[in-house]
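Hi C.,

You asked whether I'd gotten around to modeling the 429-residue construct. I have! Everything is below, sequence then structure, no commentary in between.
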Amino acid sequence: MTGQGHLDPYQRRILDDILDELLTGLPAIVLQGPKGVGKTATGERRADDVLSLDDRLARESFQASNASLEHYEGTLLIDEWQLEPDSWNSVRRAVDRGAQPGAYLLAGSSAPPDSTIHSGAGRIYPLRMRPLSLAERDIATPSVSLKELLRGDRPDLAGRTSVDLAQYVDEILSTGLPGIRPLPEVARRRQIDGYVEWVVHKEFGEQGVVVRRPRTLKEWLAAYAAATGTTTSYNRVLEAATPALQEKPARATTTLYRDVLSRAFLLDPLEAWIPTMNHMSRLASSPKHFLLDPGIAARILGANKNSLLRGRSSGPQIPRDGTLLGALFEHLVVLSTQTYAQAADARVSHLRLHNGRHEVDLIVERDQTYVAIEVKLTPSVKDEDVRHLHWLKEQLGDDLVDAIVVTTGPEAYRRQDGIGIVPAALLGP
C-alpha cells in the first residue's frame, strides 16, 4: 500500500491544534506514525513547499544538490524522509545554523535501522500521529473532557449519546485510517488485506530486512492481534503463532519482527505504569499488546460484526479475560485516550500487580497527578466494576484526582461514590 489516504475535504484533527502551537516556537517537527494515518495530509496544509522523497526524481534532485535545503523558503514538508536519511541530517544542520520557527516539517512512517542519523534530540521535535480517535469521527459530540478531569476539580458529568454496542463494533471494523474508513465494507476489507500484505512484503524490505518465511510472519501478526489487550509473553505469542511447528523460529527472528514493526509504528503497546514516586510495589512491568488499530487486528483475525457480537473467538488461542470484542473495544478506547492525553500534555499507561489481584486499564498522568480509567463492554456499571478504582484511591490519595469507567452506555454521570461513568463516544480531549 503506497501513499497516504486522507479525507477530502480535510477533517481537522486534535493534533492540528498541538502542531499549530508548536510551529510558532520550534524550527523542526517530525510527524511520526504508520502509513495511511494522515501525516502527509496534515503536513501539506501547513507547507509552503513539499519535498516528496517517495518520488524517485525528487530523491535524485535532493541527492544532486548535496542534500542542501537552502533554496526553500517558508515551511518545507519533507515527506517520507526515511527513504533519504540525509534529509534528517540536513534539517538538523539547518536547525544548528539558526533555522526559524516553523521552517521544517518531516513526515515518516519508519526509521531506517542502519542509518547514521543524529537522534534529533533538542533539534527535531517528535509528534506521534495515530488513527482517528472516536472524538474525531463525528459520531457524537464529546461532553466529558480528559483535560478537565486532569485538573482535579471533579466536574459534573453530563451528556447523552445514541451510539450503542453495534455502532461501536462498526467503528472498530471501519478502522481510524482516513483513507480506509469511508470505503464500502467489501472494499474496506480488501484494502486492509492489502495493507497487511504491504507490511509483510514491502515494509520489511524498505527497512533492509529479508523475510524468508512470510507465512510465519503473518501467523505471528495474527497471534499478536489475538493478544490484544493482554500482557501475554512474547514466547506465548510465538507458541500460539506456530503450534504445529516442531522447529520454532529463532528468538532472534521474532525479535526482529517486533523491532521492524515497532519502527514502522505498526505496534502500539501500552507500557506499564512506573510511578515517579514510590507509591506502591509489586507492579508488573509488561506492556499491553496493541496493534496500530483495532480494525486491523479484527481483520487479521477474520472477525466480523456477527462473530464479535456473538462473543466468538477468532485466530490463534491466547488466554484472556473476557471476549475478543471486549479487547477490541478496550483498544478503541486506548487509541482515543492516547490522542486526548497528547493534547493535555499527559502520558498513558496501564497498571497491574504481579499477582493480577488489582489492575486498572488506563492511568493518565500529568505532573504527578493521575486519572484512572476502567473500560467495560457494558452499558451499566456495578460496584464490582469499580473496586480496582477504589483500591487505587486508597494507594494514591489526593494524587488520584479523578476516576471514570468508560462504557457502551447512553449517559454520562457520577455515581454516589464519585466515580464517573462515561460512554466512550462522549469522552474527548
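If it helps when you're writing up: The longest helix spans residues 185-206.

Thanks,
B.
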